Amino acid sequence: MRILVVEDEKDLSDVIKKGLEEEGFVVDTVSDGQQAVNLAWDNEYDIIILDLMLPVKNGMEALKEIREYGINTAILILTAKDMVEDKIKGLNSGADDYLTKPFAFGELVARVRALLRRGIEENNNQLMTGDLVIDTVNHKVLRGGIEIPLTVKEYAVLEYLTRNRGQVLSRTQIEEHVWDYRYGNTSNIVDVYIRYLRQKIDNDFEPKLIETVHGRGYRIKVIENET
């Protein structure tokens, strides 16, 4: 999943980025509130981690503007402001969660995963369609009870498709979600990874789950009898 970290303390921003990437997330970073608004408008993020004390435009102003634009991305405020009044103001302004500094990185990751589970039917941290099961905590994938080893990027593509099962996702959407927005011209990289996934989770199983919608992109099939 793709996360935007808005933090003007470079050392802290780098630590958060590195830690989240080690957890399998794609992470973009910016250092001021106006950049945050611009990227939130131009890109589809799953989570925005937002500091409040930012240059150019402070975090509270950025939060309100993002919500005024109708952007519903989950927003986690991460700030040194620990007064109850600040928490109330942040949550009432549209934030989904509030974590104060200093913080334990494990708690940050747990809160990020909790926000990702909102708005999607997930059972015991699992995403399922038919006999495909994705453990979103341990990043394990099983098909027909058989564990399928995937690379970090293969897993990221599969999880993104499965979270949006039944919906057609364009190559651009997949590319922007799984690869850093500064990645550049990726040519046919999405098609290459779809081919890798088909070899691993579809070739030896029925029904085939990954569908190509010509001229539009790819989707994961919704199995009607899934529970």
TrEMBL record:
List-wise, which residues carry 4-aspartylphosphate? 51
The Swiss-Prot or TrEMBL record annotates one GO molecular function as: transcription cis-regulatory region binding
Q: Where are the transmembrane segments?
A: none
What domain of life does the UniProt record list for this protein's source?
Answer: Bacteria
**InterPro entries, A to Z:** CheY-like_superfamily (IPR011006), OmpR/PhoB-type_DNA-bd (IPR001867), Sig_transdc_resp-reg_receiver (IPR001789), WalR-like (IPR039420), WH-like_DNA-bd_sf (IPR036388)
Q: What is any Pfam family matched here? A: Response_reg
Q: Show the SMART domains listed in the entry.
A: REC (SM00448), Trans_reg_C (SM00862)
State a GO cellular component annotated for this protein.
Answer: protein-DNA complex
Ordered alphabetically, the record's keywords are:
DNA-binding, Phosphoprotein, Transcription, Transcription regulation, Two-component regulatory system
What residues does the OmpR/PhoB-type domain cover? Answer: 124-222
Which SUPFAM superfamilies does the record match to this protein? CheY-like
Q: Which GO terms describe its biological process?
A: regulation of DNA-templated transcription
Question: Could you tell me which residues form the DNA-binding region?
Answer: 124-222
Q: Where is the Response regulatory domain?
A: 2-116
Q: Which PANTHER family match?
A: REGULATOR OF RPOS
- Report the protein's function: May play the central regulatory role in sporulation. It may be an element of the effector pathway responsible for the activation of sporulation genes in response to nutritional stress. Spo0A may act in concert with spo0H (a sigma factor) to control the expression of some genes that are critical to the sporulation process.
Q: What is this protein identified as?
A: Stage 0 sporulation protein A homolog
Organism of provenance? Halanaerobium saccharolyticum
